Amino acid sequence: MRLDYLLAAVIFGHHAISPCRAASREQRAAGTSYAPQPANCPATPIVHQASSLAAGEFQYISARKPIADAALASWLKQINKNFDTSALPIVALAGSGGGYRALLNEAGMIQAMDSRDSNSSVKGLYQALCYHSALSDGGWLAQSLAAWNWPTISFLRENVYEPRLQNSLILPGGFTVAFAYAQILADVTVKAAALYPVTIGDIYGRLLGYNLFPGADGGAALTMSGLTTFSNFTAHRVPYPIITSIGTNASSNGNCSAPPDAIQYEYTPHEFGSWDKGVDSFVQMAYLGSSLSNGVVAQGTRCTRGFDRLDFVTASTSNIFGFLCGPLYAGATAFAQLADALQNALLEAAGIATTELFNVIPNPFRGYSRATAVTGAKFLALGDGDLSLQNVRNSIVTSWNAD
Ligand SMILES: *[C@@H]1O[C@H](CO)[C@@H](O)[C@H](O)[C@H]1NC(C)=O
Ligand SMILES: *[C@@H]1O[C@H](CO)[C@@H](O)[C@H](O)[C@H]1NC(C)=O
Ligand SMILES: *[C@@H]1O[C@H](CO)[C@@H](O)[C@H](O)[C@H]1NC(C)=O
Ligand SMILES: *[C@@H]1O[C@H](CO)[C@@H](O)[C@H](O)[C@H]1NC(C)=O
Q1: How, if at all, do strands 240-248 and 131-135 pair?
Q2: C-beta of 149 in contact with ligand 2 (< 6 A)
């Protein structure tokens, strides 16, 4: 059966799966919390040159470092009680991409290193980390850890990964499927109605939310900037998250492959931007989506809040739909059908006409002189680092097959 028929059947009421069982009753009104909202702009500049860390990140790391040092010193002393621990480095974990393998591999590694969840000789090293960066499907792991307020991997395995990832990422595992699709439609519809770009990347993000995040609404209200309010974050108990994504050209220009030196963007709880020459700028994460020119909104208009959905960021780091207009995936019919299905059955059903394949953000660096490579662009199109072959794996085709 073609996937789009399957999805259409699920959505439009052939009742392949009963649409309205228990979970649906307690939902928010679909769509209500998903659209970005107008908000007053902050008193501090929204955009700045990439010459220093975000103040929030700096404060976080300053508070985190002594906590991480104590854990690292204790682990080192266990190995060798004479270890000189008077000066310790900042330790970071970088989670690679690679489909479910990446998620599982990174999960296993963190579990082994987590003193709460392990008897291994490396236990306690998770507690010694200052940063945890991830991309692509390693980002699924990092973002699900964050979304649940950094529980143990055992918790996620039992309550999230095993029950929900049994079938397919396009099925909102563990939820009433038809209801979830109806909510996804409502969510992207309100975002489009609020005049923000909506693409297949948004649909994909919402599906990831249902598979990875807490809440009957697939974590629709969670934002990247909202992580700063989570109790383990405010207590500096966890490594600071960084999720990466590369800049691509919008697929509408007919060439959506990305060069090997494509711009490397990062999302943190405080900022979005890039250290790379050509962008060299960051924007406050909470105000991502604002319509800025040279770092400010037009007189008489307001900023945007709520664009930085956790699911959107997770989709942005793992969006490989751009491969569909490159030669490598010409024969990947199942993948093409999946994209078609999402595009036809969900985007078109929401009345949104776009062939854009990437996750799209109103360009925060428009008219900003530091951002020479993107200063003229209205939007930024973002995707998986895999699109510019930046991964450490030996074959991108294998990576899709493994998905
Ligand atoms: C660690 O070992 C103890 C004793 O064998 C066992 O009860 C416990 O389940 C183990 N913990 C983990 C996380 O494997
Ligand atoms: C996060 O907070 C919960 C509740 O206080 C705690 O059980 C958990 O261990 C914390 N996570 C980390 C990584 O410290
Ligand atoms: C986008 O396309 C332009 C011209 O076609 C090219 O110069 C630029 O390097 C491309 N950028 C990316 C990120 O692929
Ligand atoms: C498409 O973009 C890639 C990467 O920027 C470049 O290598 C290639 O030559 C482009 N192809 C066409 C047809 O413009």
Answers
A1: parallel
A2: yes
Q: Ligand 3 in contact with 249 (CB < 6 A)?
A: yes
Structure tokens at 373: 């490579």
Cα–ligand 2 centroid distance for 241 (angstroms): 16
List all residues whose CB is within 6 A of at least one atom of ligand 4: 255, 257, 259
Q: Provide the token pair at 279.
A: 């962008």
Question: pLDDT digit of tens for each residue in the chain (403 aa)?
Answer: 223 333 333 333 222 233 333 334 345 566 667 899 999 999 999 999 999 999 999 999 999 999 999 999 999 999 999 999 999 999 999 988 888 888 999 999 999 999 999 999 999 999 999 999 999 999 999 999 999 999 999 999 999 999 998 877 667 777 777 788 889 999 999 999 999 999 989 999 999 999 999 998 999 999 999 999 999 999 999 999 999 999 986 554 556 668 888 999 999 999 999 999 999 999 999 999 999 999 999 999 999 999 999 999 999 999 988 777 765 555 667 777 777 777 777 788 888 888 788 999 999 999 999 999 999 999 999 999 888 876 554 332 222 323 3
CA of 117 to the centre of ligand 1 (A): 8
Q: Which residue has the least CA distance to atom 12 on ligand 4?
A: 255
The atom number, within ligand 3, closest to the CA of 247 reads: 13
The model's pTM: 0.87
Run of H or E residues at 245: strand 240-248
**What number does the ligand 2 atom closest to the CA of 231 have?**
2
> Pseudo-torsion of CA 193, 199, 201, 203, nearest 10°?
60
Q: Two tokens at 386?
A: 């895999």
User: Which sequence spans correspond to the domains of the chain?
Assistant: 3-399
Candidates 167, 166, 164; CA nearest to 210 is: 164
Pocket test for ligand 2, best of 115, 132, 237 (most atoms within 8 A of CB): 237
Query: Rounded to the nearest whole angstrom, what is the distance from the C-alpha of residue 225 to the centroid of ligand 2?
Result: 19
CATH number for the domain whose boundaries are 3-399:
3.40.1090.10
Cα 147 to ligand 2 centre (Å): 13
Measured in whole angstroms, how far is the alpha carbon of residue 387 from the centre of its chain?
A: 16
